[in-house]
Amino acid sequence: MKTIFRLFGSRETCAFGRNTAVKIVAAVVLSLIVGMTPVHAQKRAQSTHHQEHANPRAAARIQAAQTLFNRGVDAANKDKEKAALAAYDQIAQQYNKNDPPTIRVLLAKALLNKGTLLGERGSFKEAIATYQKLDQRLGQDKNPAVREVIASALVSKAEAFYKQGDYKTAVATYNQLGKRFAKDHSAFIKHLIAITKWRTAEILADTTALSSRR
After folding, report:
1. DSSP at 34
2. What are the Cα distances from residue 24, in Å, to 44, 45, 134, 156, 176?
3. What is the DSSP code (8-state) at residue 121?
4. How many helices and strands in the chain, by DSSP H and E?
5. Which of 91, 145, 142, 140 is closest to 113 using CA atoms?
6. Whether 107 contacts 138, CB under 8 Å
7. Are 15 and 159 in contact, with CB atoms under 8 Å apart?
8. Domain tally for the chain?
9. What are the residues whose beta carbons fall under 8 Å from the beta carbon of 17, sequence distance 6 or more?
């Protein structure tokens, strides 16, 4: 739990309304830690997992990727930002969309975590570039777990634009989430879409009020 609460903690969600922030954190924790995947989807994932590990070469690559990812998470939890970013960069350099599904999920999460760390230190342009790179590399992936990470990255990217003061692009990015994932069956993504509609309304209301005061 510590990692997700850190990456989606108070500093990262301070721009959200209190209730919205709590719901987004809860959704992310339930999805990425506990799992909101339907039972039949879990069974498919377990089957894929067994198939991957039956191949010695694939199993070795999965283990190496998992080790790097764990190293990044551990470093982030200890506030060793450079070490965490280095581990996530290694994953990005060594693995690609042609790797087994388990590795693609780790790659997606590594890039999401990297973007979040960059956003935490105020490097919003770099964070946005990282989220865009994630989308370019895995945006067309059909793996439900990868798609949930892509959707999470769009939310984070929208907030990065918001924190830069680019409210118009923030709203457009939130709207993109709804358009791209409207037909997705993931309960987590549906929840995110609902939340982003509230968030968009909040931004528009805030910017309207700000303009009226000028």
Report:
1. I
2. 27, 25, 20, 11, 17
3. T
4. 11, 0
5. 91
6. yes
7. yes
8. 1
9. 198, 199, 202
Q: Quick one: which of 30, 47, 49 has its CA closest to 106? A: 49
Cα separations (Å) of 5 from 91, 108, 167? 22, 18, 26
- pTM for this prediction: 0.76
Is residue 140 classed as helix, strand or coil in its secondary structure? Answer: coil
Residue 25's domain comprises: 2-213
DSSP string, 10-53: HHHHTTS-HHHHHHHHHHHHIIIII----HHHHHHHHHHHHHHH
CA dist 84 and 69 (Å) reads 9
Q: Which residue has the tokens 């990297």?
A: 114
| Per-residue pLDDT tens digits of the chain, which is 214 residues long | 333 333 333 333 333 344 444 444 444 433 443 334 443 344 444 545 555 666 778 889 999 999 999 999 999 999 999 999 999 999 999 998 889 999 999 999 999 999 999 999 999 999 999 999 999 999 999 999 999 999 999 999 999 999 999 999 999 999 999 999 999 999 999 999 998 888 898 888 877 655 555 5
Which residues touch 13 (CB under 8 Å, ≥6 apart)? Answer: 21, 24, 25
The CATH number for 204's domain is 1.25.40.10
